Amino acid sequence: MHRSLDLVGEKWSLLIVRNALRGESRFSQLRDNLGIPSDILAARLASLVDAGVLERRSYREQGERERFSYHLTEQGFALKTVLVALQEWGDEFSPNPGGRVSLTRDTSTGQHASLAFVGDDGSVLDAQNVSLVPGPAATISW
What is the pLDDT of residues 115-139, one digit of tens each? Predict the structure, then answer.
């Protein structure tokens, strides 16, 4: 977990990934919609590109200089479950007085989607019965 947090655990990094999941890819979109200072955004984008979370692509609008857009990689898209888990946690334990800011829906059916622990056989597991156990690379005692 420590290595994961080093890559994406900073607030702005997670918000950039969230907005990229919403389809934002241009520096100006991210800056304006997040309200993030340009220097901090540039630094976070560079670190997310270096980490393999975002891919930088060149584009040029007619009469303009070359610019770059930022797109989620497979690794970046995989953070969707992390962000949904954080959203669900926040909705339960620190709810917005005005109601939920975003809803998780299946785009095909419109039905509510929530995260769950799923066993090898495909059954949904009770979160109370799921535990973290040491893996082969564990260096601390449990």
Answer: 999 999 999 999 999 998 888 888 8
Region 27-41: mean pLDDT is 98
Contacts of 27 (CB under 8 A, 6+ apart): 38, 41, 42, 45, 67, 68, 69, 70
Classified by CATH at the fold level, domain 2-77 comes out as Arc Repressor Mutant, subunit A (1.10.10)
Closest C-alpha to 43, from 79, 12, 88, 1: 12
- Helix (H), strand (E) at residue 71: strand 67-72
CA R_g for the chain: 18
d(CA 77, CA 20): 9
**In the predicted structure, residue 142 carries a pLDDT above the cut 70:** no
Q: Any idea which residue has 């997670």 for tokens? A: 14
Q: What is the percent of the chain where pLDDT is above 70?
A: 99
Q: What whole-number distance in Å separates Cα of residue 63 and Cα of residue 78?
A: 36
Burial environment of residue 55 by CB neighbours within 10 A (0 to 12, 13 to 18, 19 or more)? middle
